Amino acid sequence: MIKVAISGVAGRMGREVLKTVLAAEDTELCAAIDVFNEGLDAGTLLGGEPLGIKIASNLAEALTASGAEVMVDFTGPRSVTANVLTALKAGVRPVVGTTGMSREDFIKVSELANNMHLGCIIAPNFAIGALLMIKFAAEAAKYFPHVEIIEKHHDQKLDAPSGTAIKTAEMILEQRGDFQQGLALEEEKIIGARGGKMPGGLRIHSVRLPGCVAHQEVIFGGVGQTLTIKHDSIARESFMPGVLTAIRAVPRLEGVVYGLENLLFE
Ligand code: NAP
Q1: In the chain, domain spans
Q2: What's the average model confidence in pLDDT over 170-175?
Q3: What single string gives the DSSP state of each residue in 89-134?
Q4: Stated pTM of the model
């Protein structure tokens, strides 16, 4: 049994992870952490029987006291880096779904994971369909270098663009090499109308609306044709097989793996 602590357990993703960890045969919930609902039994979050594990707000204490082996984090961009550093310092392997970490944060986490000889998985998207979308988009970019990304999420999401959109853009940029798209003299009549600009003029457009979960279209433009690669997560369950894969894999790893595709594809 892998002893799992869930950080951000009271959130939308945290509750889904809780269900998953309780249902899997080889994982055991050992700690539940959230700044919200402190003291509440984790079982009541799902409307069920008490589990005997109370929600704690102090991550370091909860990890040490529970003997956690893996910490799953679905909190927010402002707390994720501190949480991951805390887990590594406590000898606990992080599986990170929270998006919005900066490059500097990523470097700090990487250094600590290496120094501690601990595995850490940071995955901007755990849904297999989204990972395939990124893979296919990177392939298409070799033939269609003109590309823009539209991502849509629910209106409670704090960071923009999404981690998935950034990861997609990075993979496309890697494949298409030195290429500049768009007009240099373009003029926005409303600031932001053309979206966020990545290197090479690749644009990302972020939509935030109630009713959305996580959706993305990668649109390629060529002579007389367009190609659209589209993925929709219509329920948070879509992320759970990937989260379980990461929980099972992280104890065997050393250092940071950025992107679940590194564990799934050749
Ligand atoms: P959410 O509903 O706001 O849940 C976050 C939870 O974490 C909230 O209960 C929040 O409490 C709590 N929290 C905030 N700071 C904390 C801290 N320092 N320690 C412990 N708990 C803390 O958000 P969500 O929709 O579940 O999304 C969480 C993250 O996952 C976001 O970054 C989102 O982009 C990402 N995400 C990733 C994937 C993926 O596949 N990688 C998929 C979906 C979502 P308060 O409400 O009191 O702040």
Answers
A1: 2-122+237-264, 128-234
A2: 96
A3: HTT-EEEE------HHHHHHHHHHHHHHT-EEEE-S---HHHHHHH
A4: 0.93
